[in-house]
């Protein structure tokens, strides 16, 4: 049941991300007077729809995206222009123009999208990606606020003696350094050897390399700071598995690891992360996602190789919606508290929204970035014309001429999506 709930959470999260992306386009378009005829989540046959005002809102059969139909996305052919060629793409360009013009009602030419100024076009087309960026920030902040159950610097227990290399019971006559120094369960380690220790990892890093040396350690006990002196020993300890059983090699020998040993174990507690670190985390997400987009063709090829060979799938490989769902199922099935699983789900959805933000900025149709580039080109032409004193100013950019690029991109994206779906079924990415 928890796995089903986890998948539903991600499905709803993905649908919400797509829906709000389209809201980011629709709201400014309506604000600027453009008639929005449809707001749809999904593609294919319509499952449900309702018309409110002049807009039809609905759900379609395949929830793999969404769209907002804004009247007049493509301007008519420039005055005096003649159709060139009789090929497939020439027909596509002509049909796209005709369909766009047919959507405009008589007397509402001023409400066509192509008549908007360049700044307004940019606001409309960037509204969707910016909405996904906003969601990524909100979800990351929520993840930080909830936090995760993790090891803290508060002492849960103190070892009675130094462990043996074989995993056998240790000798009480050889007390652990923490016990000899007087550390107690409940103490919170504030600093070690003069270094502040706000996390368990920081404490371990401070202890490392101090074997055989007397070191001051400050702990908070009953609301007061107490300074103790510990002398870690260089101990060889048995490597144990999750159940605490010593791990052996092929010959049956117990595997060991050596290092400075103090004799403390941490308590587990939920710890929120500082919200001031959210911008840095969002920046790292953006950089990582941008790198993934740049290397997207190579990663799709790697996924194909892994799917049809014995090569293991890379943990940082790209995934389809199916892969995201499987990851959500893994999260839902984790041996962790509900809040921990919710936090990880939020982190996963934040990454997804960052991917939608970056991916939609690719400057090619049919993605939002393609319309942004056309709007910038149109605005640049008009600015040059103003500078040169040319009148009348150039008309809207002939976006329909880019439809062949849009068709090629659609085929590439569709093929990549299907390939990744197959890969996520046959050889899914293992994150956990």
UniProtKB/TrEMBL annotation:
Any Pfam family: Peptidase_M50
A GO BP annotation: proteolysis
Main location per the UniProt record: membrane
One cellular component term from this protein's GO annotations in UniProt: membrane
Listed GO MF terms: metalloendopeptidase activity
Sequence intervals crossing the membrane: 122-146, 342-362, 405-426
InterPro entries (alphabetical): PDZ (IPR001478), PDZ_6 (IPR041489), PDZ_sf (IPR036034), Pept_M50_Zn (IPR004387), Peptidase_M50 (IPR008915)
Mode of membrane association: Multi-pass membrane protein
Domain of life: Bacteria
Protein's UniProt name: PDZ domain-containing protein
Species, as recorded: Xylanimonas protaetiae
Lineage of the organism: Bacteria, Bacillati, Actinomycetota, Actinomycetes, Micrococcales
């Amino acid at each position: 049941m928890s796995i089903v709930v986890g998948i539903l959470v991600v499905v709803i999260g993905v649908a919400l991300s797509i829906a709000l992306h389209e809201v980011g386009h629709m709201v400014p378009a309506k604000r600027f007077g453009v008639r929005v005829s449809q707001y749809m989540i999904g593609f294919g046959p319509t499952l449900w729809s309702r018309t409110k005002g002049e807009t039809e809102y609905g759900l379609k059969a395949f929830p793999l995206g969404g769209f907002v139909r804004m009247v007049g996305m493509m301007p008519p052919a420039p005055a005096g222009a003649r159709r060139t060629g009789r090929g497939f793409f020439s027909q596509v360009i002509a049909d796209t123009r005709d369909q766009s013009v047919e959507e405009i009602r008589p007397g509402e030419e001023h409400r066509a999208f192509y008549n908007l100024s360049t700044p307004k076009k940019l606001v409309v087309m960037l509204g969707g990606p910016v909405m996904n960026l906003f969601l990524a920030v909100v979800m990351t902040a929520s993840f930080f606020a909830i936090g995760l159950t993790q090891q803290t610097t508060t002492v849960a227990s103190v070892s009675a003696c130094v462990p043996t290399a074989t995993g056998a019971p240790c000798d009480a006559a050889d007390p652990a350094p923490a016990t000899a120094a007087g550390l107690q369960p409940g103490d919170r380690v504030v600093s070690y050897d003069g270094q502040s220790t706000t996390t368990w990892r920081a404490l371990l890093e401070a202890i490392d390399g101090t074997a055989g040396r007397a070191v001051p350690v400050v702990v908070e006990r009953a609301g007061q700071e107490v300074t103790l002196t510990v002398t870690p020993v260089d101990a060889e300890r048995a490597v144990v598995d999750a159940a605490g059983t010593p791990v052996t090699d092929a010959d049956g020998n117990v595997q060991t690891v050596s290092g400075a040993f103090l004799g403390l174990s941490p308590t587990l507690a939920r710890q929120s992360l500082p919200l001031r670190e959210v911008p840095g985390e969002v920046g790292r997400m953006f950089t990582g996602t941008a790198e993934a987009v740049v290397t997207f063709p190579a990663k799709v090829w790697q996924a194909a190789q892994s799917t049809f060979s014995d090569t293991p799938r890379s943990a940082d490989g790209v995934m389809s919606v199916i892969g995201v769902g499987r990851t959500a199922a893994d999260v839902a099935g984790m041996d962790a508290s509900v809040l921990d699983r919710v936090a990880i789900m939020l982190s996963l959805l934040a990454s997804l929204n960052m991917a939608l933000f970056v991916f939609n900025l690719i400057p090619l149709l049919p993605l939002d970035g393609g319309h942004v580039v056309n709007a910038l080109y149109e605005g640049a032409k008009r600015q040059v014309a103003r500078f040169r004193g040319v009148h009348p100013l150039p008309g809207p950019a002939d976006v329909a001429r880019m439809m062949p690029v849009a068709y090629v991109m659609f085929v590439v994206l569709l093929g990549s999506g299907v390939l990744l779906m197959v890969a996520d079924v046959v050889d899914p990415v293992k994150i956990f």
